Amino acid sequence: MMLLVPAIPSFTQAQVITSGPPSCPGVALTFDLCPVRNGTGYDQTLIDYLVEQKIPATFFMSGKWMTKHDRQVKALLQIPFFEVGTHGDVHQHMPFHSAEEQEQEMLGPVRLLNTKYQHDATLFRPPYGEFNDDTVNVARARGLQFVLWNVVSGDPDPTLTAIQIEGRLKRFVRKGSIIVMHANGKGRHTHEVVQDLHQHLLPERNLTPMTVSELLSCGQAAP
Ligand SMILES: [Zn+2]
């Protein structure tokens, strides 16, 4: 009798995180800090709201953004219920580059956070959410957790209204969701949308905001 060989799960899929456990009554609000050409590059109103309301959140900082926002990097790192990961150095399209180039792009902000801010950042989100096998392999070799999302807010789209973004979140947010938004000022309605999430959508569904790390260990017994 021949033994059936089980299908080997795709290596890439197994390494890329898009959500937490579906049984977890939590969601992760995540905010990318991609570099911007115009504007302040920082949504102070949004950050103030998250801090005042003590809402756990995860930020993915690009190296180029960090070099222009030293004060803000320090401020975000100081908040105990915020988590900080990285988002590439200059926001490149990873699949267009060799593994070596991707490694430089990936490690730039990791090193900067480490040397300048004494912060060990282990969460990584590729710019544009784009990657290939090299991206996944390099992140894994460097001990970084590869974090995407399963709910796209669409917040940087200037044609979307707050109501439209909220409608999208209503449709897709559930237990274990990771929501992608922006804190670099590109999301015109992000503050409004987060306020709606916090005051209405999440409490109505008995969902609690968590950092990505909390979400990933959600439901596991304490060691
Ligand atoms: Zn980005």
How would you characterize the overall build of this protein?
By secondary structure, this protein is of the alpha/beta class. The chain has one domain (29-216): Alpha-Beta Barrel (TIM Barrel). It is built from nine helices and nine strands. Strands 2, 3, 4, 7, 8 and 9 form a six-stranded parallel sheet that branches. The longest helix has 19 residues, at 99-117. It is globular. The structure holds zinc ion. Zinc ion (ZN) binds next to loops.
* Total number of strands: 9
CATH architect. name:
Alpha-Beta Barrel
Q: In whole angstroms, how far apart are the ends? A: 43 Å
Bound molecules: zinc ion
What is the domain tally? 1
Indicate the percent of residues in helices: 25-40%
Shape: globular
CATH fold-level topology: TIM Barrel
- Tell me the structural class: alpha/beta
Please state the CA-atom Rg, rounded to the nearest Å.
Answer: 18 Å
For the largest beta-sheet, the strand count, sense and barrel status come to: 6 strands, parallel
In CATH terms, the superfamily is Glycoside hydrolase/deacetylase
Uncertain runs are: 5-9
Oligomer: single chain
The helix/strand order is HEEHEHHEHEHEEHEHEH
Kindly provide the name of the CATH class.
Alpha Beta
User: What integer is the average pLDDT?
Assistant: 93
β-strand percent reads 15-25%
Number of helices: 9
Helices and strands in order:
Blueprint: H1 11-15, E1 16-17, E2 26-33, H2 44-52, E3 57-61, H3 63-68, H4 70-78, E4 82-86, H5 99-117, E5 123-124, H6 133-141, E6 145-147, E7 151-152, H7 162-172, E8 178-182, H8 190-204, E9 208-210, H9 212-216
Parallel strand pairs: 1-6, 2-3, 2-8, 2-9, 3-4, 5-6, 7-8
Helix pairs in contact: 2-8, 5-6, 7-8
The structure holds zinc ion (ZN).
